[in-house]
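Here is one such tokenized protein:
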Amino acid sequence: MEDLKVCIIGIYFGQFPNYFDLWLKSASYNYSIDFLIFTDQIVVSKYKNIKFINMNINELRSLSEEKLKMKVKLYRPYKCCDLRPAFGIIFSDYIAKYDYWGYCDFDLIWGDIKSFISKYNMQNYDRFLPNGHLGFYKNTIANNERFKIKPSNHDDFHIVFSSEENYAFDEHGSKEIYLENNFSFFIKRIFADISIIYKRYRLALNDVNYNEQIFYWQDGKVYRDFKDENLNISREEFIYIHFKERGFLNVNEECLNASKFYISYNGFFPENNNTFEKNLDSFNKYPGALFETSEFIKYKIENRIKKIFKILKGKFGIVEKIR
């Protein structure tokens, strides 16, 4: 596993989020993994394993059309997500020397990636991890072509790439391809995916949560400290923490030089040597079951209204695919 050559491709057009320096810091601790960031911003990397490649969205569209030999409707940054399963072909000139290539989001903080892909034997899988936040593909000709297989319950790549709509092909359609064809695929949820429903940081879907839990980065690793049913404080490690759709987050500048910083809905804060209980109150206070139930109901109602509104927009000639 130590000999595996691995890279992660990130694409970002426009101004990076205000916590991007912490993203870079956490990425730099994964010194044995190369990060290739394609962006229209001019950025000089301070880290050996992080490389910025200047490219705007028009240039990426041209490159995609050249490599895929088809017209690609790429006019909005978010549409790049649909192209992710084809990165093995689109960026073939950049990733030839790697055994695995991956893609990632930027609304996250990295943990110790190499320890997880070693622990779970990534070399045994054609695809490792199912989500858009981070996913790896074995860099072989056959594997890089698999996005062309038609999934049963999703439009195929011709329709997806030639449309301006968002299809979530990186997570849904491509996932179906691997599962339906029994390709080797690692799908265990070894990451901390924060729910968008609640204010405080709770893991999404059916992942285990605790009323008292705190998330933090320390010396290149991402952890959650939590109090279990026996009131014992335990620690759990994740490959990364993903805090989607949170927008602007406060960044205490001391975090940039700190060996430990907390990750919360209030932002990022350096170690303060307080007790678990005091940090819980500051960074991830549990508001009670009644309040969190009301947050859940509010989210469901708002989400339903948004879907109805999108359907009405479609009827009036504004096409937008519901994800």
In short: The first helix runs from residue 20 to 28. The two ends are 37 Å apart (CA to CA). The first strand starts at residue 6 and ends at 12.
